[in-house]
Write a structure and sequence with these properties.
Layout lengths: L17 E5 L3 H13 L4 E5 L3 H11 L2 E3 L2 H7 L2 E4 L3 H11 L8 E4 L6 H6 L6 E5 L9 E7 L5 H11 L3 E5 L5 H9 L1 H18 L4 H22 L3 H8 L5 H11 L2 H19 L1
Helix pairs in contact: 7-12, 8-9
The protein binds NADP nicotinamide-adenine-dinucleotide phosphate.
């Protein structure tokens, strides 16, 4: 995350970075907002098929918005595909004639493989990324895999851009189903955990609004402490559990109810389903 975003592209050092986001739905808009938050002067154009949405983008984000994918991609050096998986092939067929190896394609379409994308193009660098919904608040967990023509420079460019909306981690493409099962689907598990913790607070006498906030902040604080201290999660748990105290009594209930096993099973089931769908 830094202000180089619109100054120098690592893939085109002599030219400024020009980003096109194809598809202005939830994910496209979230990525655009994150990029503009890091540098409001980023050269960014968004496309969509809905005129009202394009007008909304121009009005609210003060950037270029167009329904012309070909002209937008011709002018860009980084193209982010943020459309639903079914639309990817059609768009690649449309833009392939203006895509060469001076450009970088970053696809976030779930389940669309690098191979599928590369087959539509002539040796164009491709990166396939799997973000999660938390990109909306610039706290996404984003794993990405490099295509056959993507280099370290493309990797740096991807980290620069997607780093604006969260934590980026490179991984082999074959592991992206597991990423989907963990961090892709994970926000739903954590939202359920927040809701359940809050219910526990209410059951114990807390007002709902206070219980909601305390539950959510407990998740944020625990995750931040885990990432910042680098300590093992078990060691951090031990720091909160004094002999015969309150927390160990709560922990015993979670163990009795199979909380760990439930989370492990949820990630595995979502990973298996992701494999089935791709
Ligand atoms: N939501 C998540 O948590 C999440 C996580 C990881 C990855 N993803 C991936 O992110 C991608 C985008 O998801 P989303 O929820 O933002 O989708 P979305 O809300 O459907 O946004 C995509 C937008 O692009 C439009 N579009 C369709 N064809 C187009 C074309 N030819 N040219 C330009 N725009 C076109 C769509 O119109 P129509 O509605 O008419 O199609 C829609 O307005 C998906 O592939 C999804 O798998 C999502």
């Amino acid at each position: 995350m830094n202000n180089e975003l619109s100054i120098n592209s690592s893939i085109t050092p002599k030219k400024s970075l020009k980003i096109a986001i194809i598809g202005s739905g939830f994910m496209g808009m979230s990525i655009a907002k994150g990029i503009l938050k890091v540098n409001p002067k980023t050269d960014l154009t968004m496309t969509d098929i809905y005129e009202e949405r394009l007008e909304f983008i121009k009005d609210t984000l003060s950037i270029k918005a167009s329904s012309d994918n070909i002209a937008t991609c011709k002018d860009a050096n980084v193209i982010i595909l943020a459309v639903k998986p079914y639309a990817v092939s059609k768009i690649l067929n449309e833009i392939s004639k203006v895509c060469n190896n001076d450009k970088l394609i970053i696809s976030i379409a779930a389940g669309v493989t690098i191979d599928t994308i590369e087959k539509h193009l002539d040796k164009v660098p491709v990166i396939r990324a799997m973000p999660n919904i938390c990109v909306q608040v610039q706290e996404g967990a984003i794993a990405y895999a490099l295509g056959n023509y993507a280099t370290e420079k493309h990797k740096s460019t991807t980290e620069l851009i997607l780093g604006a909306v969260g934590l980026t981690i490179e991984i082999e493409e074959s592991k992206l189903d597991a990423v989907t099962g963990l961090s892709g689907s994970g926000p739903a598990y954590i939202f359920m955990a927040i809701e359940a913790l809050s219910d526990g607070g209410v059951l114990s006498g807390l007002p709902r609004d206070i219980s909601n906030k305390l539950a959510a902040q407990t998740v944020i604080g625990s995750a931040k402490m885990y990432l910042e201290t680098g300590l093992h999660a078990g060691a951090l748990k031990d720091m909160v559990t004094s002999p015969g105290g309150t927390t160990i009594n709560g922990v015993k209930v979670l163990e009795d109810k199979g909380m760990r096993s439930a989370f492990i099973g949820a990630v595995k089931a979502a990973t298996d389903r992701s494999k089935e769908l791709s």
